[in-house]
Fold this sequence. Notes:
The protein contains 28 helices and 33 strands. By secondary structure, it is of the alpha/beta class. It folds into 5 domains: 163 residues, Glycogen Phosphorylase B (Rossmann fold); 167 residues, 3-Layer(aba) Sandwich (Rossmann fold); 82 residues, 3-Layer(aba) Sandwich (Rossmann fold), CATH 3.40.50.720; 205 residues, Mur-like, catalytic domain (UDP-N-acetylmuramoyl-L-alanine:D-glutamate ligase, 3-Layer(aba) Sandwich), CATH 3.40.1190; 145 residues, Mur ligase, C-terminal domain (Protein-Tyrosine Phosphatase, Chain A, Alpha-Beta Complex). The longest helix has 28 residues. The radius of gyration is 32 Å and the shape is elongated. The C terminus is likely disordered. It is found in: Cell membrane. Belongs to the glycosyltransferase 28 family. MurG subfamily.
Amino acid sequence: MLAMSKKKIVLTGGGTAGHVFPLIEVARELRDDNYSFLYFGSGAQIEKEKLQDKNIQYTKIISGKVRRYFTLESFVLNIIDIFKFIIGTIQAFIILVKTKPELIFSKGGYASLPVIISGALLRIPIFIHESDLKMGLVNRISFMFARQVFLSFPEDAYNIIKSKTFYTGIPLRKEFFSGEIKVVKDQILVMGGSSGAVTLNDKIIEVLPSLAKKYRIIHQTGDFDFKRVKNMADQLSSDVKEKYKPISFSNDIVKLIRESEIIISRSGATTIFECATSSKPLIVIPLPEEVTDHQMINAKYLEKNKMALVFDQRREGNELLNLIEKMSKDKEIYSSNINLLSFPLSAEVIARNIDELLGENLVTQASKIHFIGSMGVSMRQIFEISKSLDKDVSGSDIKLLGHSPKNIRRDLDLVVYSSSITPTSPAYSELAEAKRLNIYSIKRSKFIGELMKGRKSVTVSGMHGKTTITAAISHLLEKAQVDPSYLIGAPDRKGRPSFKFNHTGAIIVEACEYDGSFLDMKSTYGVISNIEEEHMDYFKGGISEIIKSFSQYISNIACGGKIFVNWDDDNVRKLIKLSARTIMSGKIEIVKIGFKQADYQIIDFESCSSAFAIKHNGHKQRIKMNILGQYNVFNLAVAYAVAVNGFGLEAQQVAENLETFVGVARRFEKKYEKNNIVIYDDYAHHPTEIKSLFEMIENKFASKNKVVLYEQHQQERFNRFWQDYLAVFAKSTIDTFIFLPVKKIPGRESEEKIKMRDFVEKLKDIGTQCFFVDDYEKAAKVAASQIRGGSIVITVGATDIYKAGDGLIKLLSSNKSDKLTL
């Protein structure tokens, strides 16, 4: 086999330690036989020194910077630097054309801008990392061209659209996370940064006589200010000098941070995260806003979240002493809180995202693909997506010409098969032939997982409501011009297709738990709508096995990701408790939605007007629905939380856009309305879903004559839950039920423990008016016989029961609805 050439990655950033070290750490995580690196920098000495032994090719890029203050000198320098930028862009463009890198990873800084602009012109994928809470000018420009944007602080802290952002922390050297921490009692470390901070240094000297009475102080002054500070310190008394050690710079800053009891520093992001790794109580002295506001913004965030105390350098020195004493008393609180920012897997997460984009991908590598079961909803979606990717595709299905081993050609690169295929189903002959020919074969869900790689993604899981939630999230993102890709179980009622695929950007996927399919789809965010017994032909271990499977689902959520959960669901609560270690180590945020106490609490639900409100962080947002049912209140609340919390959309706009969401096909979809007769169709097939549907119907149409046509999906489900079904139908106030035989699923069934005809007799015995018929045509005729003025008819089931509704509509339209005598 021929050796594959290494993929080139360009690293670029400004000339500070805060740019260089994170880039080196990510390169270290990626370094293997697959990648080589080029560093485009500013020419700063620290870049050359730190890259010297890293086997990373270095190139200085000519660049200028923008001075955002006005003097005659700054005006002239800005004009000169514009020409430098143009020259640097041409230089970077030529080098990129010659080297042909697969990706550019930027830490910001003016030296990176010519590289970013050139890369965008050449359509090279761009990833950027932002250290501070406020993006620097270069990263704000780069954001427009970037495919992925890595954020150091939790995403909620940024006021930006988050369709391509990932919370990753800052990649730090491994030394910050390893080794024993031995704290020196009463030791304070003061850091002014590698270049120093004159005002901060002066403030420390001012309070030093008082501070040295209790503490030992190690003071990193910066190279250029060291002599001045040392001369000032030499004038102090001997007992103060004994407790004070000024240093210009330290190559062992990790040790100094780890052994100190309290840290005093500027509020640059890198320093904050370095202190967070060792849970160090931190007092920050930000640069004033008139100099730069990014440090003040960082400081305010720390102060708000009780992660640090903030001192204004313009205040008197005794106020700093008071803050130090306060920190000494409350250091356990601040120590615990700042540790929440520690992100040990930062470099690994960024490297994994890069590897997902550039590494092996079954979809991109395959040219000829065959789909077994190509007419299923999800299979049809990925069949069409593959065609749009210029693949040579073929498909087979029982609804087309059936299945045959002859459909499997020797020249196929990949075979994709439906989850419904079992060794006893007709389609299995094709899968067996593919295996015989050693053609790589994967399940549908694995194929979707490949499509999701290298993108911000949301998977929507749970036993009920997945389709509506997925459709609502996609609707909200489209309305916000985010333009997501999506794969949904059904189109919406206005005919919006059930899938859309773009080559880049966010992707939203309905993820089914049956046969572990959702475990093949790793995502940035996850949704768990509810958990209860379902698909028991697969989950033979019952609810404990189901919860265990969902625990594996949580472990597939990206580090720094989020899970949006139904906090009213007892099984979901058990799951979160069971997965606590995974959630904590992966820095996964749990976002709770529910009618009870939750992060996004549903309040003021008005069933008559389909209106409700969501309370979050003291803010109350009113929402008007275009669809019915309390269960849909929850579904839309989840979509709201994902849009606002996950993607940074504005709450009021999200609420307005939810009003335009019309729901999805076959979810209480109105099919006919005439002469005071209304016909609906609904996909409900589990006892819980049917119970919720009936409650909504009974509440909304209390005075109407209500007729339900029901076809049970899967005998195995009916065997397991028939008593639950019986209770739901028996307690309902629906006037008339019309039942059809159970729709059996090939390859997934067991023997009949109860027949639908016997089930109907049990209902009749307790006084429920119901009929049993054996086909859709008869069901339509019986329904017609039960209609009177002011009737609501609903076809219910995860089958083709809607065809009975279509038949009824034809009868009503042709005036052939004479009552039948049975």
